[in-house]
Design brief:
Shape of chain A: elongated
Largest sheet of chain B: none
Oligomer: heterodimer
Radius of gyration of chain B: 19 Å
Number of strands of chain B: 0
Number of domains of chain A: 3
Radius of gyration of chain A: 32 Å
CATH topology of the largest domain in chain A: Beta Polymerase, domain 2
Structural class of chain A: alpha/beta
Number of helices of chain A: 18
Helix content of chain A: 55-70%
Number of strands of chain A: 10
CATH architecture of the largest domain in chain A: 2-Layer Sandwich
Helix content of chain B: over 70%
CATH class of the largest domain in chain A: Alpha Beta
Largest interface: A-B, 25 and 25 residues
Largest sheet of chain A: 6 strands, parallel
Shape of chain B: globular
Number of helices of chain B: 8
Order of helices and strands of chain B: HHHHHHHH
Distance between the termini of chain A: 25 Å
Chain lengths: 434, 272
């Protein structure tokens, strides 16, 4: 029994090869069926996104990853040399570690990005639907999801925005908390401003005002946001209604100057004002940021925030790796216990423990017996254990000799509670998908 | 019995402060949740200790010495914080409140269980009402000051546009401003009422509501300070930065004068 993984990511292969692979990916269901028909494959997971491919399979201990590599190469139309250069193969611990890293987003181009976890979950769902999953894959995947969640909550790997528009939203939340009921004024129509505005709306911003030199453009943009168009000349008035201003016009001078901001702030009784200037050259006079209760960020400031956030994610990745090491160890312990020999030993110990316990409870009564009878009772208990265990143990040995022992081992461990002392049984029942 | 509950409360405050600290440094929200429960347990024990004192053999209102007053102050502050916590979900404030609670409780425990004899003028039912209201009012001002301090830190971090390592743990500016405002709005009338009740009592006990006693003068000065702050806020719109700064400074002045007053100035307004 063994886990093997074959894959390709942005580090192992150049874009041109990844493109070819991604195009060849095709339907996951078909691919799963093809792989599971390969000799030696007992369970399989197939993940294919635009930037990576990962195939995880449960195979007998005697098999190696060669045939999976051949499958991936054939699917992607890779030559033998390309397959050797661009595909990586991992086994057991290495495979599990890689899977944990992928799901946690450590292996991604953007450190800690959350989409990949969704894609891994979808790949597992697909495996469940196509019935290419089994005990080992279920357990591995559920462990993977748990690790990804743990890393997300215990490290800052997914904290803080790594794009300019998200950084703006995060700052807005640091200022206003809940964005619900807030008014956003969008000045100009840069692409990044539009994106930031959309993020703000998605986070609850209630009202959108749009000002543009061309009224038609303003009206169109306002319509797409479900907002209101404001004449360009009345930006000063719009300012006093706004909580957040995003400016990105092509103007060469300042569109919003200090006097306008100060006047607006006076009229809105010093309610907090967040100014985001993503235009180059700048739209908002820099001194406006010195006014109390006004927070001004231009494109460079936001970029700095993003750079710092990127760096901080890299630092958090070190902590994430430590968690992964710990979890790989935990998985290893479970995996090793799935072997038939330790299971038989544990089963026997459990029953003998029961017999010893009962004999001890009956000490007072046993003391009344003759020495010979006492021994006979003890012998009886041992003999019963041996008789009871004979068939199950024979069956376990036979099944595992045929390579199909895993479900039996897992069932015995579950039925007799053999994992209870060493480790708590894992949260979810492994046999159900999502 | 009251002492037992008091000690349990101190232990729970300490546990809560440790858990809040742990949660801040390791960024585990679950630890903060535990800390809040410790805080709640501390509050219950603390309430029980007051209750035991009140129903016990002495049967007195627990407001007769400076130590008991400090203890009541912590109790009120914790109660206010727990209500705020329910309303605003800003646990990080607890990390500022709980260490204060621990320190003040330790000071308050110095004279624990000592016999207290009440001077005759204090055996009026108005006195506990006066102390109770004043202490709750002051506790609200302290929380307002803590929220103000957090506001200033967060404001500084956002204005500076620098590396934002600590700002993540602090609540948003608007939430802090809201906490600040609510505490001021609640604290001011409560304190006003407390002073009013005190002056009625003073009239009966000392014959005059106003003595030109240093403590009375300062209290009036602080009352005017906060009245000014509230007026500016409501009428002119002192929000955010300026209000927070004023509140923090006012609180700092109050604390300095309270300590200095206790050490250097003679006052008739002192009974234990």
């Amino acid at each position: 029994m063994k886990l093997v993984l074959v894959g390709m990511n942005h580090q192992s292969a150049p874009l041109e090869v990844r493109e070819r692979m991604a195009l060849a990916c095709g339907d996951a269901r078909t691919s799963l069926r093809e792989i599971v028909l390969l000799p030696d494959v007992r369970e399989v997971l197939y993940l294919c996104t635009c930037n990576r491919i990962e195939i995880l399979a449960h195979v007998p201990a005697s098999a190696d990853a060669g045939f999976l590599r051949a499958f991936a190469a054939a699917q992607g139309g890779l030559s033998e040399k390309e397959a050797a250069d661009f595909l990586y193969a991992r086994e057991n611990d290495e495979a599990v570690r890689h899977l944990f890293r992928v799901a946690a987003g450590i292996d991604s181009l953007v450190m800690g990005e959350p989409q990949i976890l969704g894609q891994v979950k979808e790949a597992y769902r697909q495996a469940v639907r196509s019935r290419t999953n089994g005990i080992l894959l279920n357990k591995t995947m559920h462990h993977t999801f748990r690790v990804a969640k743990r890393i997300r909550t215990e490290t800052g790997i997914a904290d803080n925005a790594v794009s300019v528009s998200f950084a703006a939203v995060e700052l807005a939340k640091k200022i206003f908390g809940d964005l619900g009921g807030k008014t956003v004024l969008v000045v100009g129509a840069g692409e990044m401003a539009e994106l930031a505005a959309r993020h703000l709306i998605a986070n609850g911003a209630a009202r959108i005002l749009v000002a543009n030199r061309t009224p038609e453009r303003a009206a169109a943009l306002a319509k797409s946001f479900g907002g209101t168009a404001v004449p360009f000349a009345e930006i000063g008035r719009a300012l006093q209604e706004a909580d957040i201003v995003i400016s990105s016009t092509g103007a060469s001078g300042f569109v919003i100057n200090v006097e306008m901001v100060a006047a607006a702030l006076y009229r809105k009784k010093n309610r907090l004002l967040f100014l985001i200037d993503i235009a180059v050259p700048r739209d908002i006079e820099p001194n406006a940021g010195d006014i109390d209760n006004v927070y001004l960020y231009n494109i460079d400031h936001l970029q700095e925030v993003v750079d710092e956030n990127r760096a901080s994610r890299m630092r958090e990745a070190v902590r994430a790796e430590a968690i992964i090491e710990e979890e790989v160890g935990r998985f290893r312990a479970w995996f090793d216990a799935l072997d038939v020999v330790p299971t038989i030993v544990a089963l026997r110990e459990k029953l003998e423990g029961v017999a010893q316990g009962e004999l001890k409870d009956a000490t007072a009564w046993l003391a009344g017996l003759k020495e010979e009878d006492r021994r006979r009772v003890e012998y009886l208990a041992t003999a019963m254990i041996n008789k009871i265990l004979h068939d199950p143990i024979t069956a376990l040995k036979d099944e595992s000799a045929d390579g199909g022992g895993l479900p039996y081992v897992a069932a015995v461990r579950r039925l007799f509670g053999l994992d209870r002392e060493t480790q708590k049984p894992e949260g979810e029942t492994p046999s159900t998908g999502h | 019995m009251d002492i037992l509950f008091f000690k349990a409360a101190v232990a729970a405050y300490l546990a809560s402060a440790v858990a809040y600290g742990f949660s801040l440094t390791t960024r585990q929200v679950s630890a903060a949740r535990v800390a809040t429960w410790f805080m709640f347990a501390a509050f219950l024990c603390h309430s029980m200790s007051f209750f035991a004192l009140f129903t016990g053999s002495a049967g007195r209102v627990p407001l007769t010495s400076i130590h008991e007053t400090l203890s009541l102050f912590v109790w009120a502050m914790t109660g206010v914080y727990l209500v705020l916590q329910l309303k605003t979900k800003t646990r990080v404030l607890g990390a500022f409140i709980s260490p204060v609670a621990v320190v003040v409780m330790i000071v308050a425990s110095v004279r624990l269980g000592g016999e207290v004899s009440l001077p005759a003028p204090l055996q009026s039912s108005l006195v506990p009402v006066h102390v109770f209201l004043s202490v709750i009012g002051e506790a609200l001002f302290v929380i307002a000051g803590a929220a103000g301090a957090m506001y200033l830190i967060q404001d500084r971090l956002i204005k500076k546009r620098g590396k934002r390592s600590f700002s993540r743990y602090l609540p948003s500016l608007l939430d802090l401003d809201r906490i600040h405002h609510v505490c001021l709005m609640a604290g001011f009338p409560v304190l006003t009422l407390g002073i009013f009740v005190g002056s009625i009592w003073a009239r009966t006990a000392w014959g005059s509501a106003w003595q030109w006693d240093p403590k009375q003068v300062w209290t009036l000065a602080f009352w005017l300070l906060y009245a000014f702050l509230l007026h500016q806020r409501l009428a002119i719109g002192w929000k955010g930065h300026r209000a927070a700064l004023f509140s923090v400074l006012a609180l700092a002045v109050v604390i300095v004068f309270f300590v200095a007053g206790a050490v250097f100035f003679p006052t008739v307004h002192r009974f234990a």
